Amino acid sequence: MNAQVSINESVLELTSDGPRLKGMRCKNCGNHVFPYQGGCPKCTGSDVEPVLLGTHGTLWAWTIQGFPPKAPPYLGEVDPDKFKPYGVGYVELPGEVKVEARLTESDPTRLKIGMEMDLTVVPLCKDDDGNDMVTFAFSPSSKGDA
Amino acid sequence: MSEVAIVGIGMHEFGRHEGVSGMEQGAIAVRRACADAGVEWKDIQFAFGGSSAAGAPDTMVSQLGLTGLQFINVQNGCATGGSALFSAYNTIMSGAYDLGMAIGFDKHERGAFRVETKAREGRDWYGGSGMALTTQFFGMKINRYMQENNISQRSLARVAAKAMRNGSMNPMAWRRKALTEEEVLQSQMLSYPLTQYMFCSPGEGGVALILARADQAHKYTKNPVYLQSAVVRSRRFGSFEVLAPSLSLEYGEGPTVDASKAAFEQAGIGPKDVDVAQLQDTESGAEVMHMAENGFCEHGEQESMLEKGETEIGGRFPVNTDGGCLANGEPVGASGLRQVYENVLQLRGDAGPRQVPNNPKVAYTHVYGAPGISGVTILSR
Fold first, then answer.
1. CB under 8 Å to B197, separation ≥6 — which residues?
2. Which segments of chain B are extended strands (E)?
3. Which spans in B38-96 are helix H?
4. Which chain A residues contact residue B237 at CB under 8 A?
5. 3-class secondary structure, B115
């Protein structure tokens, strides 16, 4: 089995306990941003720290990407015959921030605003060493609210 | 009373023009604007030019004539044209010059805009992951909006069908074939709930506007149109914007609301005084949401307005009379100026089969684009 590698370790860390997103927390006002940046858009302060964001949240907005994105920059499948539509949404992480991410679900009848979601990863392509390059995604929580 | 008038307008047809560069289309628009105002290029004292993908605008002087004028390039996303106009307006307001131009042109590759972003370090994870598509934002925003405000997918189809109907009467438009609501609904689903014909396409074209001191406007035209306000605003904390890897938990109003309020305040009028409006319709949902964000109706009221045809050319509040972005496509640098061009035609009474009845007096334009910027103008005659 091939190893998984993150598309970019500075935003997505693959830990032994699963994937984690790396964000920013403002020490002055508590605001969170993803990914990490050096200043706070809420209070304009710059006393900020890196944090690992939560892995569970609720779906706030969504769509389905119905056509292959352009490559570059896209690293996934762009052949129109092989491309499979995928969900994209904002997932609200309680007390932190809404993160834009791919969704593992791409059936519009199975996506509902407010549904519970968990962080996971999806494969994009092979890297130069034959590893599976992955990016972050959210999937409907297994406890389910269908 | 405004101190700035639009005294000449010129446009190069929008669409696809093989073998004609974006800049040449801009230069053709400039010559047409000069002819419209009865001036020559050498009379123009200054220009602001915008293009996002078709070269540095100021190099067009080599085609138009090296007269030594002040020429400043503007690049501000989808508000590039609006920003050029804003800058030209303020240059005349300041008293620095009496006669100048706002110019916009572009020429984009086919398909959705390619957005490549720079990560703080390492690979472009945002575009690489299959996000960073403007189309996704529009799908997500209208999808949520429809649920919150009881807007149907039929309304989205009505907007697109209206655009194509209006475009079919516009010789400058790219898409000039009317489409039924059913054809719109049945076209390919690109970004749920938006289908192919609900989206505009990146395209080509050029627009040039000649601005003059209002007290000198009658030297150039018997039908001056006065610029009552020109406003550009960026986003504030809490707004839901295109190409945002994260959003705050707080949910607030976007830059369109701010730009609209400021423009009305500057003009000293309100939404009820507007007779015709060109609102950013990069897709059908944008027109629907922008009707409310610009203050022309309550959220949710669009459903009945569209059903009753109130935004048609003959309706109570005509919107996107030239077919908007949906029928004209979006050459980013020219798009906002195209809206102003159409409004000048409408206020002069020169819009031909698209003419809004009963001599419109006040006209409104609005653009919106990445990364959360809006530009509004209010014109009157």
1. B160, B164, B179, B183, B184, B187, B326
2. 4-15, 46-50, 70-74, 99-107, 189-191, 194-195, 204-213, 225-234, 246-247, 276-279, 362-369, 373-380
3. 61-64, 80-93
4. 41-42
5. coil
Q: For residue B229, which of B82, B72, B48 has the smallest C-alpha distance?
A: B82
**Which residue of B lies nearest to A23 if distances are taken between CA atoms?**
B246
Compute the nearest-CA separation of A1 from chain B (Å): 22
Evaluate whether B208 touches B26 at the Cβ level (below 8 Å): yes
Beta-sheet strand order (sheet of B204-213) = B70-74, B46-50, B99-107, B204-213, B4-15, B225-234, B373-380, B362-369, B276-279
Strand partners, B70: B46
Tokens of A54: 């939560």
Domains of chain A by residue range:
4-139
CA distance B88 to B104: 12
What is the distance between the alpha carbons of residues A103 and A135, in angstroms, rounded to a whole number? 11
The pLDDT value given to residue B78: 82
pLDDT in tens, A107-138: 999 999 999 999 999 999 999 999 999 999 99
pLDDT tens for each residue of B314-355: 999 999 999 999 999 999 999 999 999 999 999 999 999 999
Q: Which of A88, A109, A124 to mutate to test the interface with B (most CBs of B within 10 A)?
A: A88
Give CA A89 to chain center in angstroms. Answer: 9
What number of H helices and E strands is found in chain A? 0, 10
pLDDT of residue A1: 56
Number of inter-chain CB pairs under 8 A, A vs B: 138
C-alpha dist (Å) from residue B220 to B93, B119, B211: 18, 51, 10
The C-alpha of B273 sits at a distance from chain A's nearest C-alpha, in angstroms, of 35
**Domains, chain B, with CATH or none:** 4-110+199-376 (3.40.47.10)
Per-residue pLDDT tens digits for A31-58:
999 999 999 999 999 999 999 999 999 9
B/e letters for B109-133, b = 16+ CB within 10 Å, e = fewer, are eeebbbbeeebeeebbbbbbbbbbb
> In which element (H, E) is residue B149 found?
helix B134-149
Contact indicator for A135, B128 with CB cutoff of 8 Å: yes
Q: Which two tokens stand for residue B83?
A: 């920003």
Burial tier of B183 (Cβ tally within 10 Å: 0-12, 13-18, 19+): middle
A63 CB neighbours in chain B (<8 A) are 136, 139-140, 143, 191-194
Contact A117, A139 (CB under 8 A): yes
The mean-pLDDT minimum among A59-73, B112-126, B147-161, B346-360 falls in B112-126
| Token couple for A100 | 């834009």
- Cα dist from B243 to B115, B226, B317, whole Å: 9, 35, 31
What percent of chain B lies above the pLDDT cut of 90? 92
